[in-house]
Amino acid sequence: MPWLQLHIPSTADHAEAVEDMLLALGASAVTLADGADQPLFEPPPGATPLWRETIVSALFEADADGEAIIKALNEHLDPPPADYRFEQVADQAWERAWMDDFKPMPFGERLWIVPSWAEAPDAGAVNLKLDPGLAFGTGTHETTALCLNWLDGADLAGKSVLDFGCGSGVLAIAALLLGAEYAVATDIDPQALLATRENARLNGVGDRLTCFLPEDMPAAHFDVVLANILAGPLVELAPQLINHCRPGGRIVLSGILAEQAGNVVAAYQPQVELNPVAVRGDWTRVDGTRKA
C-alpha cells in the first residue's frame, strides 16, 4: 500500500516536540534528518544531539487526512509549523531495503564481512557473519574499515583484545576469528551489547567474548586495545585506554577526522610509540605500541 509522507522543517529545540505530536496524530514512523548539511562530530557520551536545522518526516497511511493533521499541528505546537510538504511514497519491503545495500566486503588478505543472510564469496576465507541489528558497525564506514584492515594484517594468535565502544561487536569478533584467544567488548549503549553477543553467537565465538557496560569493566590489561569512537572521547579517555593496554601491547584508535589526528597523537604519544597515521577518505587511524 502507498504511504503519505509529511516533511516539516524544524529546529534542534523544537524537533522532538514535533515528532511527539506527529506520533500522537497516528504517524507510523517519524525520522529526523539534517536540514542544512551540519556535521555532528563530537557528541559527548550518552548525548543525542540534533542539527540546528532539522527536517522531521512522518509516514502516514495513504488515506490519512492531511488537512486535519496540519490543523492539529497548528493548534497544539508552539510555534506552529512555518512550512511543510506532503508527498506520496510507494510501498516497498522496508525491512529488506537496507539489506539490499549491505554486500559481502573483503578487508586485507584474509577477512570478509558477510551479511548473515548472504553466501560467503570465498568459503576458505575468514568470514565474519554479521547482522547489525540494534547497533551500527558493519564495516562499510571508513573508520571501521581502517580497524578491520589493521586486524587482518596483525598476528593475533593467543592475544587478548579489548573492543572499547564495540557497536555491533564487529572488531572484537573479527579479532577472535583471526586468532585472538579472548576478547572483552564494552559500550555505553546496552543495545550494542545485545547486538554484540548475538553476532558473537552467530560466529561461534560467544564463549570467548565477554561484554560489559563501561562502569562494570574490570581493571584488566590487554594485548590489543581497539577504540573506534570519536576524537574527543579518545583524547579524554587516553589515560584509561592506555592503562588497559599492557606494556608492549598494541593500541588502535579510529573515528578520527584527518584534521583531528594531531590532537589524538599528542594525547597518546608520550606513552605509545606511534606508527604513521593511516588515512582512508576523510578519516584516519592512529595506532602504535605501548611503551614499557
UniProtKB/TrEMBL annotation:
GO terms for molecular function: protein-lysine N-methyltransferase activity. Methylates ribosomal protein L11. It is found in: Cytoplasm. InterPro entries: Ribosomal_L11_MeTrfase_PrmA, Ribosomal_PrmA_MeTrfase, SAM-dependent_MTases_sf. CDD domains: AdoMet_MTases. It catalyses: L-lysyl-[protein] + 3 S-adenosyl-L-methionine = N(6),N(6),N(6)-trimethyl-L-lysyl-[protein] + 3 S-adenosyl-L-homocysteine + 3 H(+). NCBIfam families: prmA. GO terms for biological process: methylation. It is an enzyme of class 2 (transferase). Keywords: Cytoplasm, Methyltransferase, Ribonucleoprotein, Ribosomal protein, S-adenosyl-L-methionine, Transferase. Belongs to the methyltransferase superfamily. PrmA family. It comes from the Bacteria. GO terms for cellular component: cytosol; ribosome. S-adenosyl-L-methionine binds at T144, G165, D187, N228. The keyword Heme does not apply. It holds the Pfam family PrmA. Its main location: cytoplasm. The lineage of its organism: Bacteria, Pseudomonadati, Pseudomonadota, Gammaproteobacteria, Oceanospirillales. It comes from Isoalcanivorax pacificus W11-5. This is Ribosomal protein L11 methyltransferase.
